[in-house]
Each structure stands twice: as C-alpha cells, then as structure tokens.
Amino acid sequence: MVSERILQDVRTMRAVLPVTSSATTRLFVLIAFTLFCAPAMADAEIHKGSPGSWIDRVELPKADPRFDSRIKNGISNLVSEYQIRQRPGGIEAFDRYAYRIVDRTGLERGAAINFEFDPATSQVTMNWLNIIRDGVVIDRLPGATFDVFRREKDAEKGLFDGWLTAYVNVDDVRVGDIIDYGKTTVRTPIVGADLFFHSVAVAWGEPIALIREKVVWPANQPLNIRQVRTDIQPDVKTDGASKTYSWQSINPAPVKPEENLPADFLTYPTIQISSTAKWQDVVDAMLPYYRLDQELPAAFASKLDDIAARYAKPEDRMIEAMRLVQDTIRYVSLSMGRGSYIPRSPSTVIASGFGDCKDKALLLASSLRRLGVDAEPALTDLDDGLALGDMLPTIRAFDHVIVKASIKTQTYWIDATNYLQGGRAENLVPPDYGFALPVVAGSARMERIERKELFQPTTFVSEAFDFPKNTGEALKLTVSTTYRDADADSMRYRLVSQSATKLADDYLQYYNRQYPGMTSLAPLSAKDDRDGNVVTTVESYELPAEDLDADDLVKNFPLKADVGINNLPEPDMVGRAGPIWLGSPMFKRHQCIVRNLKAEFVGPEKSDDVITPYVAFKARWSSTPSEFQVDWFLKTINDRVPAKDIGSYLRSRRKMGDNASWTYNFGYAETEAN
Fold first, then answer.
1. Gap between the Cα atoms of 597 and 467, Å rounded
2. Do the Cβ atoms of 448 and 520 come closer than 8 Å?
3. Where is the signal peptide (predicted)?
4. Residue 551 — φ and ψ, nearest 5°?
5. Helix 357-370 and helix 314-328: axis angle, to 10°?
C-alpha cells in the first residue's frame, strides 16, 4: 500500500500536520503551526472533480535506468509535483504523484492510496485516479470509494488532533501498471492568511524521474527563496499581476539517508520559499491570540498573590508560579480545528484543570506578569528547534510553545508542560530546544536558548562491593546514585510515573546480568531535594557465596562503567556527508569501590584516557592493601562531530568501550603486601 504519509516524508512533508505532531524525518520538519483553520471550513468528504484551468499537466517522464538498482519496495517513482496559487483567504494547492509497479512487492504497496488531512482547514478534491496499462489510460476515479476515518495515534499521550485519513483501494492493479493520481486542496487560514511558506526536497532517498514545483504568486509580493545544498534556480515568468516560479529536478541521484544528524543539517537538498523575510510578520499574526492582559479567576489570582506575599525576590516568584502551572494543570491537547493553533483563555484552562503547551504557556506568562516578572510566550520546536536559526520565517516552523522570562539582565526559558521540574532560578535547567521566537510586539527575533554548562556530573553512580570476610558469607553491594540538573528532573519524573517496585526490578535485572544470582536486600530508597534539583537513590544487594564462586566469577570479577558510552551514536561512516549529532550535554561519573580484599590491586600502568574535541573519557584509580577504587568519567565537549572526523571519533568510541570494563581475580590473596 502506498501511504501518502510515507510519500510526504520523501516529498518534504507536504501535508500540514497539527501543532502537536513530531516529525520523524530530517527531510524538513517545519510543519506544525501550519494553516490556522476556520471551523466553518470543516469538510470530511473527499470530493471528485476536474482540476482547475490554472493547473498545467506534464507528460509522464521515463525513469533513468542507471538508478534501477536503488528502487525500493517495488515502486519506481515517476512524477512528484506540487502547484500552488494564492486565492482569497488562503491558497489552492495541487499535488500529483505517479509511479510504476515493478514487482510483486510494489503490487502490495501500490494498489492502495491513503493520505491524511485536517477537515477543519482543508477541502480535498481528487482530480484523477488512473491506471496506465500498456499505454492505455484506465479511469478509476468514477468508481473509487474513499473511506475516511479518524486515527488518534497519540491519544495515550493526551494528544488529539482531529486529523482524518482517506483511504482508497484501486481495483485490478497489476505488475507493470502505472498509477497516476492528482488532487487539489483548498486551504483557508484564519491566522496569517497573507503568510506563505513551502519547502521542497529536489532529491529523494530513492530514484524519482521528475520533481516539479510551481508557485503562482502576486507579482507585487516578491517571494524569498533559500537554497540548501542545491543550485537549481527557478524559471520565473510574469503574466500581468501574477508571477510564476517553477523548479524542476530531473532524475536526481538518490541521496543516502543518514542517521544521527543535527536538526540544522538537512539530509536532502532543499528549496525553501517564504512570502516574508521578517519574523515580526509571524509574531504579528500570533499576537492577538496571546494577550497577557486577560483576567485570571479570583481563586487562582489569590494563589499568585500569596506567592507575592511570601516571596519578595522576582526569581523566587518565577519558580513558584512555574511549579503552580506545571504541577496543578495537567497536560491534555485537544488540537482540533481552532484548538490546534489558538490557545484557550487562562480562565478556561484553570476551570478545566488541563491545557496543552500553548494554553499553559499563556497561563504561565500571564501569571508571571501579575507577579511583576517580564514574560511572554515563545514559539519553538521540540525536536528540530535547532533548525530555526537558519530557516526562512514561517508560521509553520513550530510545534511547541514555551515561556521566556526576563529578570534584570538574566533570561530564563521555561517549558510549562514539564512536570515536577526542580531547581531555583540559579540552577534552573532550560529546555534544550535550540531556538525560540518570543511573541512580543515590535522587536521579535529568533533567539538562541543557551545551554546550561555542566561543571559536575549530572549522574554519579557509586557501587560499593564488600567482599565476604569469611568463607560462606555473601558479597554485599550498595549502590548510591546522585542525579543533578536535567538528570534529576528525569529521575524525579520516573519515580512518580513508574512504581518503585518496577524501578527496583529493572535495577536488579541489570546487576543480575553482570553478577548472576544477585538478590535485593532492601527496597529502593529515594530522596529528593527539589530546590537543589538533586535526587539520590540507594540500592542494596547481596550475592550468595555459591554464586560468587560459580563459574569462577570471583576470579573474573567485572567492574563496569555505566557512563553513557552506549548512548553515543555509532553510525555507518561509509559515504557520510553530515555531522554526527551527540545531543544534549552529558557529564557522567561511575565509581566502583571494592573492599575487604586480601591483596592490593592496581589499575593499568598506562593511562587510557580518551580526549577529543567532542568527547572526553577518563579513568582514575587508587588502592590500599585491602581496598581498590576506580572512577570513570565521560563528558561531551561539543554537540556534533564533523563528517571529516567521524573515523577518529568512532575509533575513540571503541577505545572508550574497551576501557569501560575491567576484570580482576579478587579471590587472589598474597602473604605479604607488595
């Protein structure tokens, strides 16, 4: 079955996704605040009708046989085209896709078509649906039946977007057939109606004979164009009051998909088109919906006044208001129609007890203003906010809303959808979203969300192994773990979202894989210093004497560093063009203390430190005649590794893995000290 969602991943994510969606490809994830829809536009039916006279139709091209070996899933892509024109109150968009079914696999995929659409913003008309067999066109549109149904894929996360899926099964499809269909979508925004944005990848990860894009736009409104790793120029023609921009990419060489890329590195050569060069135009479209002067319910206002009475410092007021909104307003996103893009009033959110990111951001910003703290909502992207720094202005760039608070010269970024976030102003961890656009009148600009520099490990695991003093006694293991900053926030959430028993079982299984027979001595204990943003846990285990002696475990006793080496990406480097993304800053420490030994043990004579511009790994050890201690440290220095250095990075990663586990014969006893 050919899924339109899959095709859209390849065709620059053409469909408009709701604000709560999270894109799964790097092709171009700029699709959340798409077109702000009017409920009166709601249309859940797939219509049938002829294409408009403004749409030009090209002949089917031939695929380049040089790329036949790179055809995937039995589908040879022939045409992908998109034509757009401005219309009163919105746009009209025509898209066409044609492909040949080359084998049985393609028959399974190509005989059915499905695509998603938002009934609140879009009216969809299928213009043609043809099978071309041996040069003969067979019209399947008259008899086609479109099943339209709703799938809420993220309902368990509290996300409801109202999008519909249209599905049609094409009758009597055979290997060798060409499927050719085109549809027109009329979209009617109510916010940013004069703002236009579109992006197109001019090469795919598989062969395509022709990628064609056309934009018909008023000649007195010049379009802004940005090219990313492509030199394809538009053919521009002026006809009266209209100007037509056309791009063609003929049989482009397939691009090898790459994993672990930073969000600001687009895998595919891309062209961006925007009707504005100013982010202020985007903000001006949003400002009417983010008024911070709305009245707050009396009971909630009283809570804020109580905060003001108890805390004189604006930094403390900010933290208390943040916790009030984060902890008492649960997250639910009813993102259907206007609810996809326009926040509900603070009074409505408080009365219902729930809200999504934009609801909670507006409520928090309003609360901070009441407390005398300068604050405004800010638009960002959960996964791809780092790409916002380079892209052309568009409402479609965002899928999340946070809050920017300013106290004197200090800026604080707060995600009101976080739950049980710790810290005070001096150690508050900002969300790692890259860039954000504050919704502020007159001076809007894309701003970088600075990361918090790590000066100490955010996770410190200390394992104390007490070997038995007498024959027949069990080995005792005590594990103390200290979480700080972002790791403390994550652990705090785990402690409340999972049962203590489940966590304890997971940890016990971890130690049983290394030391078979390990049993738990006490329930997992946890202590939370929320203001300091420090969470500590303690685990207690024992390993019976028979298990310590089994399979010579005592003679091959492993000490293993769990500092996140496995979290460092290890992608294929063959033909790679993009950098490796290392992610958010990481600093971890793992300590092993072994006591009650009958000999003095030492670590390697030669240092096995790994120091690169991107990641650092160190091991330090010390010993006494009866005790041995080793500490491993891992810290990321940069957030990416350039393509030219991937080979040395992968060698360093392997070296780190080799030196993150040491094995000793702790049963050895010496009569005299060394």
1. 7
2. no
3. none
4. 55, 30
5. 150
Which whole number is the average pLDDT over 435-450? 94
Q: Tokens 């060409």 appear where?
A: 178
Instruction: Look over the chain and give the mean of its residue pLDDT values, rounded to a whole number.
Output: 89
Please give the Cα distance from 448 to 560 (Å, whole number).
38
Q: Could you give the CA distance from residue 229 to residue 28 in angstroms, rounded to a whole number?
A: 13
| Nearest-angstrom CA–CA distance, 529 and 524 | 17
Short-list 102, 110, 163, 174, CA closest to 138: 174
Q: Which domains does the chain have, with CATH numbers?
A: 44-274 (2.60.40.3140), 282-446 (3.10.620.30), 457-662 (no CATH)
Distances (CA, A) of 300 to 346, 364, 369, 564: 10, 12, 14, 43
- Pull the structure tokens for residue 456: 């100490």
For tokens 């059915």, name the residue.
112
CA dist., res. 379 & res. 381, Å (int)? 7
SS3 of 268-290: CCEEEEECCCCHHHHHHHHHHHC
**How many other C-beta atoms lie within 10 A of the C-beta of residue 170?**
21
- Single-letter code of the amino acid located at 309: A
Q: Which of 355, 336, 337, 335 is nearest to 345 (CA)?
A: 355
pLDDT band at 263 (very low <50, low <70, confident <90, very high): very high
Mean local confidence (pLDDT), 83-88: 93
Tokens of 589: 């420490």
Name the more confident of 89 and 10.
89
Residue 295: per-residue pLDDT: 93
Closest CA to 282 of 32, 29, 24: 32
What span, in angstroms and rounded, lies between the C-alpha atoms of 451 and 505? 34
Q: Would you give the DSSP letter of residue 497?
A: H
CA–CA distance, 549 with 544 (Å, rounded to integer): 9
Q: What is the C-alpha to C-alpha distance for residues 361 and 355, in angstroms, rounded to an integer? A: 9
- CA gap 510, 481 in Å, rounded: 15
Say how many Å lie between the first and final Cα of the chain, rounded.
72
Strands (E), 136-268: 136-139, 147-150, 159-160, 164-169, 178-187, 189-191, 197-201, 208-218, 224-228, 235-239, 242-250
**Nearest alpha carbon to residue 432 among 259, 583, 264:** 583
* Distance from C-alpha of 577 to C-alpha of 653, rounded to nearest angstrom: 19
Assign 311 a pLDDT band (cuts: 50, 70, 90): very high
Residue 240: count other Cβ atoms within 10 Å of its Cβ.
6
Over residues 222-227, mean pLDDT: 96
Does the CA dihedral 99-105-107-110 come out positive or negative? Answer: negative
- Length, in residues, of the chain: 674
pLDDT, average across residues 42-47: 81
What does the buried/exposed string (b/e) look like for 278-294 if buried means 16 or more CB atoms within 10 Å of the residue's CB? ebbbbbbbbbebbebee
* Residue 107 main-chain phi, psi, to 5 deg: -60, -40
**CA proximity to 216, closest of 229, 234, 193, 191:** 234
Phi and psi at residue 109, to the nearest 5°: -85, -35
Q: Which residues of 73-110 are buried (b: 16+ CB within 10 A; e: fewer)?
A: ebbbbbbbbbbbbbeeebbbbbbbbbbbbbeeebbebb
Reported pTM: 0.88
Using N-to-C axis directions, what is the helix angle for 357-370 and 298-310, rounded to 10°? Answer: 50
